[in-house]
Design brief:
Elements lengths: L10 E5 L3 H10 L4 E5 L8 E5 L5 E4 L3 E2 L8 E4 L10 H4 L6 E4 L5 H11 L3 E5 L3 E5 L2 E5 L7 E2 L7 H13 L11 H21 L14
């Protein structure tokens, strides 16, 4: 477990190669031992760039279809309706902390917690990302750092190492807070009518596919 500058890098797997997962992966690849997990690993480089004319860069990361057994932390970045299905992907890493950037309603979170126990930590993404042509554009609002819920004491060191890695690669964070799961749930409930209203109005879906697919 990383405890200082001379320690080996944290072993992190990101489940979900859409817009959000791709941006976090492209940054964290500089600071951790990273794997990017997808149902159908594309295998190509990630192409990401800051919004408003930022330079697009290509980042090569290892792809896989399942979380490695030795992963210390898993970052869940799939759609809400895919969260429970992702449990099978997480199965090999029996001891890994699972940080969910996926917004979870209380019933879904309870079902995941029934399997993951105190390894599950709710989080709020500090990145807004979207597909722009052949790459993912993103920005990091100053008022929206990556926020994590309070981890169990036995996982605190891994969570601290993860937050330190995010800060080193330019993705700001705040200290873990016990209120984060409730804030996530309230946000999802508030946005649910809007999300349901888009397809009802006949609008097209703009889901973000993996970045290495053209």
């Amino acid at each position: 477990m990383p405890t200082g500058p001379s320690s080996p890098p944290l072993r992190v797997s990101i489940v979900g190669a859409g817009c959000l997962g791709s941006v976090y992966a492209a940054h964290l690849a500089e600071a951790v031992e990273l794997t990017l997990v997808a149902r159908e690993p594309a295998g190509g480089p990630l192409r990401v760039g800051r919004d408003l004319g930022g330079e697009v860069r290509e980042v090569t990361v290892p792809w896989t279809s399942a979380v490695p057994a030795d992963a210390e932390l898993v970052l869940l970045a799939v759609r809400s309706d895919q969260a429970e299905a992702a449990l099978a992907t997480l199965a090999p890493a029996r001891d890994a902390v699972v940080v969910s950037l996926t917004p979870l309603l209380p019933p879904t979170r309870a079902r995941l917690a029934a399997t993951l126990g105190d390894r599950l930590v709710s989080a709020m993404a500090g990145v807004i990302a979207y597909r722009k042509g052949s790459h993912v554009a993103y920005y990091t609002p100053r008022s929206l750092p990556t926020r994590l819920g309070l981890p169990a004491e036995r996982h605190a060191a891994v969570v601290r190492a993860f937050l330190a890695a995010l800060d080193r690669v330019g993705l700001p964070t705040t200290a873990p807070h016990a209120e984060v799961p409730g804030i996530v749930a309230a946000t999802v409930v508030a946005l649910l009518p809007i999300l349901l209203g888009v397809p009802a109005a006949g609008a097209r879906s703009t889901r973000c596919s993996p970045t290495s697919r053209r």
